[in-house]
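Appendix C. Worked example: DUF1349 domain-containing protein
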Amino acid sequence: MSDVIPTQSASRDIPWDAGRWSNRPVSTRVSEDGTLYVMAAEGSDAWRHTSYGFVHDTEHALLVSFISGTSMEVEFGTPFEEQFDQAGIFVRVSAEHWVKAGIEFTDGTPHIGAVVTDGRSDWSATPVPGWSGRPVTMRISWADDALTVRARCSEGPWKLVRVAPFDAWEGVTAGPFVCAPTRSGLEVPFCRWSVGEADRSLH
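Step 2, the predicted output written as structure tokens:
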């Protein structure tokens, strides 16, 4: 994972009520400062086949249209304590073709990573223990045939997480997501959701 600074461009906030849930969470609420709190259902997850053998399609993703030539950012808190607690950005084409990128609590440590799925899932993850309990911003940029995933903690530098091939051209949606595969009671605060131009360069 390397430090990068994506080209900054004008962006616009997306209102929480603009999205549609892939699977409704246990509850949602918006605080006075505009933060969206989402409580995940126990057992919610997104995965297809690889290594584990199962298919899970029960993530809570709040989705709007996502088009080539744009980027999306989601800022969220990380109150993760149990195995596989996770949140970030979800990009969905179909039940068999999707990408999720964010922070996942694995084996006692938060990891930053992505799951790229086209029939079968492919997971990459890097431990970031210093990010525990701190706000994180995920950014996915769609340019031509690829998604570029970046992340930063608080106001720190952007880090390149993943460059993944992406061959969908229409009917794509994306937005914030949360999953709680192993427990009940996980409530994640989402502070900001925005869309802008795609990053103009990889480095």
